[in-house]
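Worked Example 4.2. Read the sequence first, then its structure tokens.
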Amino acid sequence: MVPVDVGINPGFCDQVDPRLLVIVRSQAENTERRDAIRYTWGGAPGFDVSVAFFLEGLPDAKEAHLYHDMMEARLTPVRWTFAFCRKASLLLVVPDDVFVNVPYLLRFHPANRSLLGDRDRFLVTGDALPLLAEAMDPFQAAQSVGVNVRQLAGLLDSRAPNETCGILQSYTLSGVDTSDQLSYWWAVADPQKCSKKKFPTS
């Protein structure tokens, strides 16, 4: 492994204008987790979503050469998004053991100036980004700048063993192994398989 400095990647959104931007917090050594996301919900065509990885540490040069979706976590996710991807209507921040039900989330239309979830997984509306951009802790700053902190059922769900199709009613699931990302994606991409019970088991 040859580590390489990927910087803060300010040009990430130059060629994209996503409705949903997902920032995935990831340790540099978690290459397999990032690849599992890229090959499933983070890289599926036809959805108005872009995925960027905020890294703790330096990634391998080979991965950095193949993909241009990583950056060092020198800024907060909210501040980086406001600075370089401010056209995003929604910002979702998650760790790299989370599955995101992209089709379900894209159908969600939150109230203006909303911050939903908790410090581990949270969703921010685009109009709240400039209000929270300078805050180290958006949840602590939200009330004082007029952003409403809300809860959203299905945003903070956890993986249940042998319940692959449960993802259809969840926005995100935590505790998802690399090998399970594909099973969940199959369920989301073709919900009819769930009704027929024809899907790969986790």
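Now turn to a second chain, presented in exactly the same format:
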Amino acid sequence: MLSTRSEKMWVTTKSSFPMMKLQMSLAVRLQQRCQTSLQFVRFRKRINIQRPAPPHYERRRVLEVCKPYYKYLDPRKGMSLVDLCEKPIEALPRTREDNPYERILAREMLNWFNHSRMIAFFHGNPISAEDRFKTNIIFKRNNMQLKQYGRRVATMALEDTKYAAVLKLFTSHNYMVFSTEPQVAKLIKLNRKIPQLVLMAGIVDDRFLSKNELVKYSLMPDLQTAQAGLVALLNSAAMHLTQNLTHHQQTLIGHLRKHVELQQESLKEDGKES
């Protein structure tokens, strides 16, 4: 009786084994589907297979050398020498049309140059619109004008003039300050408050000066003070010459006056004694 029951259990277990195997495989598949997959991405973005990034220069050279060459499939076979030339054909220089607005700006720029006794050239570092507005206000309060012109406009305005030498300064973003009076000392003092503008050179009374020369010019007194000092120096020389010429006469007159005073005193004493 026991043997029969054990045989039945063994048959039942043997028959249910494939079903258990199937259930385990399904559980494994379900677990794999529920699990999150990890994908490593370079440079925080997906790799573009259709347009890959260009390789490094050295690697590109190696790949170019190792590229297979098929003799019978050469696409350059039968091409002329002109077509085989890999150097790019030099493009013809572009001719720009005359812009009337640039002509107006050029006349305005030349007018500023002709009617300004002091012109300062600055190199412009990056500056915000708000700081640019504050800079305009600072120069405007001190009777100065901050302007900016391009190289093409500067060439149209200053070419074939006495200011043609300053065209070499127009190689980047430049600013110019115009003033009807040579306020060099005030200009340098204001420039210390504006680090975005770097002073390069200037023109004072039609004379081109470097930055160091402008600094030396700012330490000098103004024209009226210098003229007053020159007049005082010339007057002192004339007075010194006059004193040297009349020294002997004045000395003789002094001695004679003293002699007369002594004689008068002696006569008074003789009159008292008598």
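Notes for the reader: The first helix runs from residue 2 to 34. The longest strand covers residues 197-204.
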